Fold Nitroreductase family protein.
Amino acid sequence: MTETIKLMKAHKSVRRFKEQVIPQEDLTEILTAAQMASSWKNFQSYSVIVVRSQEKKDALYELVPQEAIRQSAVFLLFVGDLNRAEKGAQLHTDTFQPQGVEGLLISSVDAALAGQNALLAAESLGYGGVIIGLVRYKSEEVSELFNLPDYTYPVFGMALGLPNEEHEVKPRLPLNQVVFEEEYQEQTVDVIEAYDRVQADYAGARATTSWSQRLAEQFGQAEPSSTRKNLEQKKLL
Ligand SMILES: Cc1cc2nc3c(=O)[nH]c(=O)nc-3n(C[C@H](O)[C@H](O)[C@H](O)COP(=O)(O)O)c2cc1C
C-alpha cells in the first residue's frame, strides 16, 4: 500500500479542534494542492474563501450552528463560481446562459474535487477537518455574509484544525455493493438493513437514528427552499 492510499483509507471527519492556528505556509500548501484537482475543461469553476477571523466564524455559526465552524483554525467556503466564466465569455459573445443543471454540475463537481484534495492535503500535514454542506440550507444568508456576486453560490464549507477528538474510521458499504462489474446491479433492501446494523454497531451509544432513517429524513420530503431561491437570485437557475 502506498502512503497516499494509507492516508485516504485513514480518513475520518474531525469536528472538534485544539486552539491552534494553521500557519500560512501549511494553508498555502493545502490550497495549492486543492487547485491541482481536475476541472471541467480546465474552467476551474469554483473559488475558495478563507475565513480566519473568529468574528466571521461566529457570524457563520449563528446561521449554521455546527460546532466545528467556530472551533476551526480556518474555515474554507467552497463557492461554485461561473462569475469568471461570464467575464471570459463576454470577450467573445453578448450572450451568457449559465442557467440550468449543467452549470451547477460543472461548478459543484469542480468545487468538490478541489475540496477533497484540500482535505487530504490537510490530513497529510496532521490536520483534520469536516465538510459542512449545511451552509446550503442558509444559502441566501451565507451569500450575503461573504458578499457573493451573481453566478456564484456556496457549495460547502470545510472546517480545518488540529484534531481534538479520537474515533474509528467509519465503515463504508461493502465494496461489491457500490462497485459493479460491467453493468449496474440494483440492490435489494436487505443490503440496506445490513448496513443499518453495521452503522449501529459503529455508532454504539452515540446512535440516535439509523442510516436508512437519515435517508428517509433527507429524501422523504421536498428539498429546502433556500438553495433554489439563492441560485435563482444569482442567475444560475
Ligand atoms: C457534501 C458533504 C457535506 C457534508 N456536510 C456535513 C455537515 O454539514 N456537517 C457535518 O457534521 N458533516 C458533514 N459532512 C461529513 C459527513 O457526514 C461524513 O463525511 C460522513 O458521515 C462520512 O464520515 P467520515 O468523513 O468520517 O468518513 C459532509 C460531507 C459531505 C461530503
